[in-house]
Each structure stands twice: as C-alpha cells, then as structure tokens.
Write a structure and sequence with these properties.
One of its GO terms (molecular function) is ATP binding. InterPro entries: Kinase-like_dom_sf, Prot_kinase_dom. This is Protein kinase domain-containing protein. The structure is a single chain. Helix content is 41%, strand content 13%. The protein is of the alpha+beta class and 63 residues long. The chain has a domain of 40 residues. The longest helix is centred in the middle third of the chain and has 20 residues. The N and C termini lie close together (9 Å).
C-alpha cells in the first residue's frame, strides 16, 4: 500500500468542507467504490472510521 501523503479523512475534514461540491462528491464516490471492491471480494471492513479513509494525492482510499 502506498504512503498516504495527505493523511486521513478525519485529519482533513476542515479542508474538505471548504472544497467544492464536485470534489466532495468525487471523494464520496471513491470511498464507496473502495468499500464496494472490498465487499465484492466477500470481505468485510471491521474497523471503518474516518481515520481509516486515507488520502493519497488527489485520491481517497478506504483501507
């Protein structure tokens, strides 16, 4: 897994709130897509919280 050079969702909430709506919707889509990928592999994310949603560059990853 790559280093999350922009931290996690919880640590970036104030910056994210100031982002435009399209960027916020894109981040939400990426989070949902990541969880869907996990579930499609018949896995469950047992510790899902804002500290586990990682921000790498302009992308958000659910880990």
């Amino acid at each position: 897994m790559d280093y999350a050079n922009n931290g996690n969702l919880g640590g970036n909430l104030t910056r994210i709130i100031k982002s435009d709506r399209n960027q916020n919707l894109y981040m939400l889509y990426e989070i949902i897509s990541g969880l869907n990928d996990i579930h499609n592999q018949d896995l469950i994310h047992c510790d899902f919280h804002d500290g586990n949603i990682l921000n790498h560059g302009n992308k958000i990853h659910s880990e």
